[in-house]
Design goal:
disordered N terminus, single chain, 507 residues, 4 helices, alpha+beta, four-stranded antiparallel beta sheet, five-stranded mixed beta sheet
Length: 507
């Protein structure tokens, strides 16, 4: 504009020099100053206003109409983005409200979704036949209505009253890292043992919740622990590539002391909801030397178990082999090869010289030592790593996998499973009671109970006061009815929990 001061600058684009003249726009503040300086009236307080600038670019290659069109498009995009953000926020609020509703309704467990394994099949042949006979939009409407009805029926059936009454009775605290396994003492001994990533194994009194003995002989994570069936011995497997046999005799009359030495100091709350560990802990004796040391593996020993009569021991390792040891001499009798990937678990039969090894190669193998030349059978049915496989009293095998399924197999028929249990999370080291109840620990902190036919019995509660707060690694049934707890669970929240599981009519 003529008479207005301007700033002239040069820019280089495509080899040409363009001169851009940016006029200095006079603001309302400048106008006030000029008028006050030219007049005789004294200066008044200056009111500052928003200054708007307008830039004119000379020699622009974008036509004015096109530039206007681009601005309109950008404004439309901005409006669409704002609408999407608002819609997304509204949907998020609805999801949170639904989650809170499910937390209140799912037995107080806080479950976020209903697994397909919990659904009961719903079929309505009459409606299905009607759907097939319909055409056009009306068929789509009927199909959608039937689908909604089926889903509603499945959800309603999943909220049916469980057949088992499950309550948490005991809490065992003291480990400083995640707990891989919990096992039950032999008949007549109210004790449990735990194996932890803190390089220790511990023995606990079931009734007192006190740590009675600590074993610190391993230099790596203790991944498994099992009691000798008749003697005061325990067998542990470790990440230091060895398995140890050690004395498991406990002193029931331990003095107490006020100390936090053996308590895991974490920022997590205990199952009781308290932010502080219990002020009183047992002065449990520490055992550092094993009776026997089983060597020979070149990788992590992930599990070990006593074979029938406890004269032999079977170990499973990440070196893809299992070893059969003489329990007295600690010498290797056989090396069991065949798995293509790391082994994850080993379990032995309660009445026969059989063992089953699980592997990340999605298979588990049944090893038969009843004859001088042992035989092996391969079970294929999972699509991902088999995390555990155990025997039942009915001569069946139950396997758990990272493919979120648990399968029941007939020991003499390995072609197909008798039952398949679907879940919504990886299943870990499960346990089967003498009554045929399968307890399944999951990565999502849930523990579910099923029978050998695959029928769901119950889900253990998981609230701020009950249940695990991290992955549940292992469960173990106690058959001794004299103790208040008949199921024990452990996980990476460093806790062992004792549960009372009773039929509803007996509760």
């Amino acid at each position: 504009m003529p008479g207005e001061p301007s700033i002239t600058t040069s820019t280089k684009s495509s080899g040409k020099i363009k001169r851009i003249s940016i006029p200095r726009v006079q603001s309302s503040t400048d106008t006030e100053l000029q008028s006050q300086q030219s007049g005789s009236t004294p200066l008044q307080p200056i009111a500052f206003h928003t200054v708007s600038f307008r830039t004119e670019v000379e020699e622009s290659q974008i036509p004015s109409a096109l530039r206007t069109r681009l601005l309109d498009l950008f404004q439309q995009i901005e409006k669409e983005f704002e609408m999407l953000c608002a819609e997304n926020s509204s949907l998020q609020d609805k999801i949170e409200a639904l989650n809170e509703k499910l937390e209140r309704e799912c037995y107080g467990s806080g479950e976020r979704s209903l697994p397909t394994g919990d659904f009961q099949d719903y079929t309505d042949n009459k409606n299905l036949s009607k759907q097939k006979s319909m055409i056009g939009s009306s068929a789509h409407k009927v199909k959608a209505s039937h689908k909604l009805k089926a889903q509603t029926s499945k959800i309603v059936s999943s909220f049916k009253n469980p057949t088992m009454n499950c309550t948490m009775q005991k809490e065992y605290r003291g480990h400083r890292d995640g707990i891989w396994e919990v096992s039950i003492g032999r008949s007549g001994q109210p004790i449990i043992a735990t194996a932890s990533a803190d390089h220790t194994a511990r023995i606990w009194g079931i009734d007192s919740c006190r740590c009675l003995l600590q074993y610190t002989g391993h230099s790596g994570s203790v991944n498994s622990v099992r009691f000798h069936p008749t003697k005061d011995l325990a067998l542990s497997a470790s990440g230091d590539c060895s398995a140890h046999v050690w004395q498991a005799a406990v002193n029931w009359d331990l003095p107490k002391r006020t100390s936090l030495e053996d308590v895991a100091v974490t920022g997590d709350r205990g199952a009781s909801g308290s932010d502080n560990p219990p002020p009183e802990e047992e002065a449990a004796p520490i055992l550092r030397t094993p009776v026997k040391e089983l060597l020979g593996h070149t990788g992590v020993v992930i599990a070990a178990d006593w074979l029938l009569s406890a004269e032999q021991i079977v170990t499973a390792s990440w070196d893809r082999t299992a070893n059969l040891y003489d329990a007295e001499t600690a010498e290797i009798i056989h090396t069991l090869c065949g798995h293509d990937q790391e082994l994850t678990y080993v379990a032995t039969h309660h009445a026969q010289r059989l063992c089953v090894t699980s592997s990340r190669d999605s298979t588990f193998r049944l090893w038969d030592f009843r004859e001088p030349i042992h035989s092996v059978s391969v079970f294929q049915g999972h699509t991902e790593a088999v995390t555990a496989a155990v025997f039942t009293r009915e001569d069946k095998i139950v396997s758990a996998s990272d493919d979120r399924s648990v399968k029941v197999w007939e020991l003499r028929n390995i072609r197909s499973p008798l039952a398949t249990i679907r879940g919504d999370s990886s299943a870990n080291r499960l346990s089967v009671s003498s009554a045929g109840i399968i307890s399944i620990p999951h990565d999502n902190r849930q523990i579910r109970l099923f029978d050998l036919n695959g029928q769901r019995l119950a889900r253990l509660p998981r609230t701020s006061r009950q249940g695990h707060r991290r992955m549940v690694c292992s469960v173990a049934w106690a058959e001794d009815s004299s103790t208040p707890c008949n199921l024990f669970s452990c996980g990476f929240d460093r806790l062992v929990l004792g549960w009372s599981i009773l039929p509803v009519k007996d509760a």
